[in-house]
Design a protein that fits this description.
Elements lengths: L2 H12 L3 H18 L1
Helix pairs in contact: 1-2
């Protein structure tokens, strides 16, 4: 997992930003599917 992505996730969790977390999870899912 790229470091910039981890930072985004940490910030989203700290801010309890559920929408952001959902978005990031979807992005990560597609990213893995495409590159895996």
């Amino acid at each position: 997992m790229p470091s910039w992505f981890k930072k985004q996730m940490q910030r989203a969790y700290l801010e309890k930003d559920r929408y952001q977390i959902k978005m990031l999870n979807q992005c990560w899912f597609f990213y893995q599917k495409k590159n895996g």
